[in-house]
Amino acid sequence: MAVWYSLLLVLGMSLFVYLGAGLLGLQAIFGIVVPYAAILVFLIGFSMRILGWARSPVPFRIPTTAGQQKSLGWIKPSKVDSPYTTWGVVGRMAMEVLLFRSLFRNTKAELTEGKLAYGSSKWLWLFGILFHYTFLTIVIRHLRFFTEPVPFFVQALDRVDGMLQIGSPVIYQTDVILVAALLFLLIRRLVNPQMRYLSLPADYFPLFLILGIALTGIMMRYFAVFKVDLLSVKVLAMGLATFNPTIPEGIGVMFYIHLFLFSALLAYFPFSKLMHLGGVFLSPTRNLPNDSRMARHVNPWNAPVKVHTYEHYEDDFREKMIEADLPVEKQA
Amino acid sequence: MTNDIFELLKENRGMLVDRWTTLTLQTYPNESARFYSKEKDQFHNPVGHAMSKGLAEIFEAMLVGRDIQQIRPMLDSMVRIRAVQGFAPSNSLAFLLFIKKIIRDELGAEIQAKGLEQQLAAFEERVDGTLLVAFDVYSQCRQTLSDIKNSEFINRHVQLLKRANMVSEETRLS
Amino acid sequence: MSQAPKPEELLRVSHIPPKKDWMDPRVDLVPGTWGYPGKASSLETLGLPNPREWNPTDEDWKLPPNWKEIIHEGLKERLEKYRSLKIFLDICVRCGACADKCHFFIGSGDPKNMPVLRAELLRSIYRQDFTMAGKILGTFAGGRELTEDVIKEWFYYFHQCTECRRCSLYCPYGIDTAEVTIIVRELLNLIGVNIDWILGAAANCYRTGNHLGLEPHTFKGNIEYLVDDIEEYVGVRLNPTFNRKGAEVLFIAPSGDVFADPGIFTYMGYLMLFEHIGLDYTISTYASEGGNFGLFTSQETMKRLNSKMYAEAKRLGVKWILGGECGHMWRVLHQYMDTMNGPADFLEVPKSPITGTVFDNAKSTKMVHIVEFMADLIHHGKLKLNPSRNDYLRTTWHDSCNVSRGMGMFEEPRYVLKSVCNNFFEMPENTIREQTFCCGGGTGLNAGEFEYLRMMGGMPRAFAVKHVQEKHGVNRLVNVCALDRAILPPLMDYWAPEVSVSGLTELVANALVMEGEHDRLTDLRGEDIPGMEGDE
């Protein structure tokens, strides 16, 4: 059910744009109002979320230690897996954010009874990291629509991405990989009963949404029927970027669907699990050093509590203590 | 082509044991059945590993007709697990009878065509015998658990009980 | 009379209905997998809410009339107090990397024991009540309504988590189910839903200082009894002191080591070690529990129980504190104590009086782990050891969860163990060190009535032990945790018979050559040392 709802939602949104921008001619709404609104929601929502998290303090220093602590001088500590300096923490976070280290942790190939077996999580790591990096590349590549002149690194990235020189127009490797990775992540949720059991609509929806964005983009680029006038698209994009929006003629409806789905992704982002993008940096089990016995961590709400003091204790047991030759503060 | 049921079963043993394992693991909820059957690392998946290894061994043993003493340890690894997983006793052991149905489903036609029913009955008797041994193993496992529960209490308070002269070496050993 | 079922029909009725959506909160309380409720008297001792007699199998749990409001407000308060909670509830993408990392899932096959789902049990309530999407979209956004069934489900599944943090190791965002479990148990305690084994122990610790509730004279008497045993087996008379002002070091161990088998042999080891090096130390009857059952109850209770350590160190005027072998005790000491009850500015930076080593790694908390202390002594050659006395043992090392993933102590114990025992074999790589498997009974699941749960939860650990038993003839599982010492022996009895369990210091003391000792024909358990009897 969760799958169908999510798929229908994305299809419904596309149909909605087809009706609105295609048949009713409301290009100004779908080309200007929606993107601006989406960006606004994204920026405000994202900041609010981060501020919301930051507002709650970190009362205790609770890193998950994944390596040897720093203790005696002659025992080699694990600087990154059990960091005790700021640089160690930076290193750990970099490994986490850039290489998905924790996800990689369980992906060793295992030799079991003479047969080499791979855990499924190896694939999860591989397709996870492929998805994230290709998505990033594609977003950066799109900067060519929003900049004039197009910066050097965007041009370079564009060339590298089309390096294989297959097809005309040249096929971007990232397009292929992104779709493959998305399909893997989707199929994994559907085929594996364990994953299907725990997946929510909120897990399928972003996958379909991004798949929709990717497919509409690909259709525009590679299929003549859906081709749009790139120059007009650039005019529209530059207009948005320079706060001087215009709606040029001759942009096909496929572009508006593409833009709308992306806007939807932006607007949906702050309210969803996609916020892991920001949250991973704030995760207390990863971004704190394992130095809690070396340096005192202060808890801002550390409140006094009712304790059973030694005096009370002695009052409770004084006679028995004296009889057992235990020293006491006050004689009976 | 063979006219001996044991040869026939031997030829098909890969398929039969696979089906047997699958069916046995399907007694767990779907979500875990998949994990138990897919995860290959024996230390991350002790249940699946013990079941697939144990069933293959038992099948082999029943083919050859090994005696009880040899079958017992093979059963032990599987029954020991089932005995703590909250199944009713009948549910814990029913998986052993599964092989009968699998053989009839998969090879029934061939067996009938070749007139091997009599021989099949001989094999099925071995299955029944195995089940009876499994009962022994099962009840011994449960007995161990209840013994453990008793000794746990003594161990946890051993120093106090000793001081109160409530425990002797004999009680602890019993 | 109905017809006898066919085997495959029987099999279809597995212990958990398969097709049920996880959002359905109704649980079957499978015998042997849940705990008896906290006694009213324990709750009264600790001043905790809603003391009453109740039973989890009853329909009516006698919750306070406004329980929903209490839970809601309690969650709200904790979201404001813990960034960890907020982030862990918000950013999980349900990638499933943690799903098969939990020993309870591996052993029981119950899908709600997948860490991601365990957290979803709270997350779904949070979404419904605290997020915009959940308020508007409800179930579609993954929200669930808070009902009494949810409370029962929480009670069941958050007492099937040992806060071992193994899942957090594999999570790409470091989401730690232990944090979620800690918070949910706090919430449950707000409405008086808890288990006796934790609450009873916490109440005892509060009143008498240790979890069995031994009063000062009994506590002292128990240790003196161990002194007698040492005299018998070793031939040396020791004189430990209690509550002595002016000692250099205050020694605090988990109290289980004072009265439970095999922990008592570890305690005998502590006493012999201190005698051997001539340490100026004292034992407190007031701060007589290293373990902290508050960690399994609430942050506040944890702080209340932990406060005794610094208070007693201050009263006695010691220079620093030495802590015994315990798991969750060290989670609290390493990651919480200084923050909760510090600063310990009345103590000095710990310095070993024997080797002169300054423990800079504990310069703020001023508490040193006995294994760190022993490793330093051995490294400086300050212990006279005869490791061949342990030759009858073929050992393996169980990394306890808390000192592994909440502290990072891996090399010190291995160094000590290899120094005092010639036969040491590691278990498979993915079951040790930071990837270690829990014993299956931490966080109060040690109660007798959890017997099946513990056997299932400890299965992955036990199978790794069984592997080295079959491969290398391992017969002793060594560890550094009092709960392990209580939980692993029955686990071994069931899964890997003939493997015994002991603390590390017990083996150190076995090997220690004490001044004035007689021929050591037995180990500290009073059992003949094979090979030694022939020397007579």
Structural commentary:
The complex is a heterotrimer of chains A (332), B (174) and C (536). Chain A is an all-alpha fold. Chain A has helices at residues 2-23, 27-55, 86-99, 101-105, 120-141, 143-146, 152-161, 173-191, 193-198, 201-222, 230-241, 253-268, 276-282, 310-323, and strands spanning 109-112, 115-118. Chain A has a two-stranded antiparallel ribbon. Mean pLDDT of chain A is 90; it is low at 107-120. Chain B is mainly alpha-helical and 174 residues long. Chain B has one domain. Chain B is elongated. Chain C has 536 residues and is mainly alpha-helical. Chain C contains 23 helices and 7 strands. Residues 10-18 of chain C have low confidence and may be disordered. Chains in contact: A-B, A-C, B-C. At the A-C interface, helix 2, helix 4, helix 5, helix 9 and helix 10 of A face helix 3, helix 4, helix 6, helix 9 and helix 11 of C.
What is the alpha-carbon Rg of chain C in Å?
A: 24 Å
- What is the helical fraction of chain C, as a range of percent? 40-55%
In N-to-C order, the SSE pattern of chain C is: HHHHHHHHHHHHEHHEHEHEHEHHHHEHEH
Overall mean pLDDT of chain A stands at 90
Tell me how many strands of chain A there are.
2
Please identify which CATH superfamily of the largest domain in chain A we are dealing with: Transmembrane di-heme cytochromes, Chain C
Largest sheet data of chain C: 4 strands, parallel
Looking at the overall shape, the CATH architecture of the largest domain in chain A is Up-down Bundle
CATH class descriptor of the largest domain in chain A: Mainly Alpha
Class by SSE composition of chain C: mainly alpha
Most residues in contact: chain pair = A-C, 88 and 103 residues
Q: How many angstroms does the end-to-end distance of chain A come to?
A: 74 Å
Overall number of structural domains of chain C: 2
Total count of helical runs of at least 4 residues of chain A:
14
